[in-house]
Specification:
Helix content is about 30%, strand content about 25%. By secondary structure, the protein is of the alpha/beta class. A 6-stranded mixed sheet has the order 6-7-8-3-9-10, sandwiched between helices. Helix 4 (about 120-135) crosses helix 5 (about 150-160).
Length: about 230
């Protein structure tokens, strides 16, 4: 018997605003994402791809339809269940959202805070290791003000990955990176899928990394218009 997919969306609808200003943004979206896969959401600006991503990542409340994440239904989920689920997810955003007063290492360590108390030395080793993976092993103690835009984004990637999340949600993670750095980050996510079964869903306009995707889902005007699987 095949295991349930880590992400299953069924009949998803979403509105913004209220009263006469209420406007539907997502229309009957249904999709499944395979475990360990790299799935890319594409579409023009305003197509709804980031809204779908944030609904799947429980950054917005599900209004209508079903989002089942790692076996947990998000529509109507209680606070306790949502907190427990958050510990199993990683997030990468176009805006790196680093704390300016904390070093690269300290920013990454914040990615482990959701897991509660633990071996602080082990946490630091994990932070240093993942920063090394993204090419920042010699900048562990640098403040964000002393890092380039691309380096800041790589710190944000390291922060998302340090807790070994089961699912990574990424919104334009390569936008601030040059071609080589952007590809390195996506290749790392791809490798995590192969080696650990980490599932990644990514919104991007970056055509340079599309060949790495296992599936590409295109949205237009809040609806899925195309799904392509890698051969």
């Amino acid at each position: 018997m095949q295991a349930d997919p880590p992400i299953r969306v069924t009949g998803l609808n979403h509105w913004f605003g209220s009263g006469e200003a209420r406007k539907q943004a997502i229309f009957d979206v249904s999709l499944e994402v395979d475990r360990g896969s790299l799935t890319i959401l594409m579409g023009p600006s305003g197509s709804g791809k980031t809204t779908v991503l944030t609904l799947m990542g429980r950054l917005r409340d599900v209004q209508d339809g079903s989002v089942c994440l790692l076996g947990e239904e998000l529509n109507g989920a209680g606070a306790t269940a949502q907190v427990a689920l958050r510990r199993r997810l990683g997030f990468i955003f176009q805006a790196h959202n680093l704390h300016d007063s904390l070093t690269a290492r300290q920013n990454v360590l914040m990615g482990l805070e959701v897991h509660g108390r633990g071996d602080k030395d082990g946490y630091q080793r994990a932070a240093d290791h993942v920063l090394g993976l993204v090419g920042l092993g010699e900048r562990l103690d640098y403040l964000p003000g002393n890092l380039s835009g691309g380096q800041k984004q790589r710190v944000a990637v390291a922060r998302a990955l340090v807790g070994n999340p089961e699912i990574v949600f990424a919104d334009e993670p390569t936008a601030a990176l040059d071609k080589a750095s952007g590809r390195t980050v996506v290749e790392m996510l791809k490798a995590l899928g192969r080696e650990r079964g980490t599932t990644t869903v990514m919104v991007t306009h970056d055509s340079r990394i599309l060949d790495l995707a296992d599936a590409i889902i295109t949205l237009e005007e809040g609806q899925i218009t195309r799904r392509e699987e890698s051969s």
